[in-house]
Each structure stands twice: as structure tokens, then as C-alpha cells.
Write a structure and sequence with these properties.
The mean pLDDT is 85. The radius of gyration is 18 Å and the shape is globular. With 293 residues, it is an all-alpha fold. It has one domain. Helix content is 80%, strand content 0%. Helix 5 runs antiparallel to helix 11 and helix 7 crosses helix 11. The relative contact order is 0.22. The two termini are 24 Å apart.
Length: 293
């Protein structure tokens, strides 16, 4: 797969995630967070499992030593998803969108400080553009509470997930299998916690079936699987900036489906996020062409 196609898949991932953010919030009116997360990723696991089995028959044998890193990705994925969902109980969608977007800065920071990776200078201004655009798009903070703290923790673990999933997918050459294991681990852990600390309700599940299907099959099964496939070909820092466009897509879906309107600062935010995405996509190609000349 070419870098350009991988970046397109990441944009498609961001589009699906942007459409699902409101559903994650409205589902909390009927389901508790761990119950919702568990069912959501049960659906994602079942949706992707047949493709993982087919991937296994394609000749890429899954080695025993590759399973532990995949389970580790699943654990990080569970913590990121669960803390985000719990945070939505107290914080606003506006705050949640911006604070989750902190992973755009966390990814290059972790890669640079902890992993000693050399990053192109352009990553830092692009990350700043994306984060500033998300701030303008959301209209700033609406008052901080404990839910916002959960969102910051979630953003840190999303950053770890973005870094790990790219590395593990490349080494195993089994991105769909990786996504399936990731979903299964999150589902099992979420439902285990739900049975202990929550009261799962069949009526709540039936009432929130639309949110469960969309976030489970599309945002979960499709979105995160595309991420695993695409990140084999796009560096983690670049991928984080491209996927941050979910905030832009969330705003566009709000305009198209809910009749919401963006003010001038919101439009500026959209332009900044779009600029950041273009920078990380076009600069590598410009450098390659310049090197060839």
C-alpha cells in the first residue's frame, strides 16, 4: 500500500470517528460506561473476526511471540476507551473533543522523549495547528470537572495506542488480527468491570441499539481496523495529526444532520485542522520529489 492510500484510510477513519462521537455521548442516557464499551467492542469483535480468519489463511502465520504485544495493545486500548467513556458522564462533548485531541501532541512527545525517535521538524507546528484548530472549533472550555481529568488520561493512552498499533501491525503483518484481539480484550475487560460495578440493563441496550450498532460496527469494527491497516505505512506522529480531523468531521456532521452552525472561530478551527492534515501529507512528497531532482 502506498503512503497516499494509507493517509486516505486514516482520513476515512477520522470521518467515521467524528460521526460517532455524539452517539457515544447520547448512549450514556441509557447505558453505563463499561456496559456500553463492552457491548460495543463485542459487536466490533464479531464483525471483524471473519476477516481475521481469512487473513490467517493468506499465508501470514501468527507467531506465539506476537500474541503478547497484541494483548498489550488491547489493554492500552481498553484503558483509553473506558476512561473516555467514563469521562463523558461528567464533561461536555466540547471539552471531550478538545481534551481527547491532546493525543496529537502526546504522540510525537512520547515518540521523541521515551522512544528516542527522530521526528521531522514539521510535526511540531502541524500538531500545534491541529490542537489550536480543535480549540477554536469547540469554542474553548465550558468549565472543568473530574470528567475532564479522565479525558486527559484517555488522551495519553490513545497516544500510546497510536504508537503501539503501528509498530505491532508492521512486525506481525496481521493488522486485522491485531484489531480483532484489541476489540476482544477491551470487550472482555469492560464487561468484567460492568458486572462488578454496574447494573447492565437489557432495556437500556434495546433503547441504545442505534448507538451500539454504529459505534460497534462502524466506529469500532471499521474505523479501528482501518487504523491498524493504514498505520503500517504511515508514521505514528503523522497518523495522529491526520486522525485529529475527526473533530472537523464531527462539526460537519453536526451541520448536516443536526442543523448546527459554526461561527467565525469555528470556521477558522476547521481551516487550521485541514491545514495541519495537508502539511503532514504533502511535505513528505515534496521532500521526495526535491531529493529526486
Amino acid at each position: 500500500m502506498t503512503r497516499l492510500r494509507a493517509d486516505f484510510l486514516l482520513l476515512l477513519t477520522a470521518l467515521v470517528w467524528g460521526a460517532a462521537f455524539v452517539g457515544q455521548s447520547t448512549a450514556m442516557e441509557h447505558l453505563e460506561p463499561f456496559t456500553f464499551t463492552g457491548i460495543r467492542f463485542c459487536l466490533a469483535t464479531l464483525a471483524v473476526l471473519p476477516f481475521a480468519i481469512t487473513e490467517g489463511k493468506s499465508g501470514h502465520t501468527l507467531q506465539r511471540h506476537q500474541i503478547k504485544p497484541m494483548l498489550a495493545v488491547g489493554l492500552v486500548f481498553f484503558i483509553a476507551s473506558a476512561t473516555q467513556q467514563v469521562g463523558l458522564l461528567a464533561t461536555t462533548v466540547t471539552n471531550a473533543g478538545f481534551l481527547t485531541a491532546l493525543y496529537v501532541v502526546f504522540v510525537p512527545a512520547v515518540a521523541f522523549i521515551a522512544l528516542r525517535q527522530k521526528l521531522p521538524f514539521i510535526i511540531w507546528p502541524a500538531a500545534a495547528l491541529s490542537l489550536t484548530g480543535t480549540w477554536f472549533l469547540g469554542g474553548g472550555f465550558e468549565g472543568l470537572n473530574w470528567g475532564d481529568g479522565f479525558m486527559v488520561v484517555s488522551a495519553l493512552f490513545w497516544a500510546l495506542q497510536v504508537i503501539l498499533i503501528g509498530a505491532v501491525a508492521k512486525r506481525s503483518n496481521r493488522p486485522v488480527t491485531l484489531a480483532t484481539i484489541q476489540f476482544a480484550v477491551a470487550a472482555i475487560l469492560s464487561l468484567s468491570v460492568a458486572v462488578i460495578v454496574e447494573t447492565p440493563s437489557v432495556q437500556g441496550m434495546l433503547t441504545a441499539w442505534r448507538e451500539l450498532l454504529f459505534t460497534g460496527l462502524l466506529s469500532g469494527g471499521l474505523g479501528f481496523t482501518l487504523q491498524a491497516i493504514a498505520q503500517r505505512h504511515t508514521p505514528a506522529s503523522d497518523a495522529a495529526i491526520i486522525m485529529s480531523s475527526e473533530a472537523l468531521f464531527a462539526a460537519l456532521f453536526g451541520m448536516a444532520l443536526l442543523g448546527e452552525r459554526l461561527d467565525t472561530w469555528g470556521l477558522v478551527g476547521c481551516a487550521l485542522i485541514f491545514s495541519a492534515v495537508l502539511i503532514v501529507q504533502l511535505v513528505p512528497f515534496w521532500r521526495e520529489r526535491k531529493a529526486q531532482d
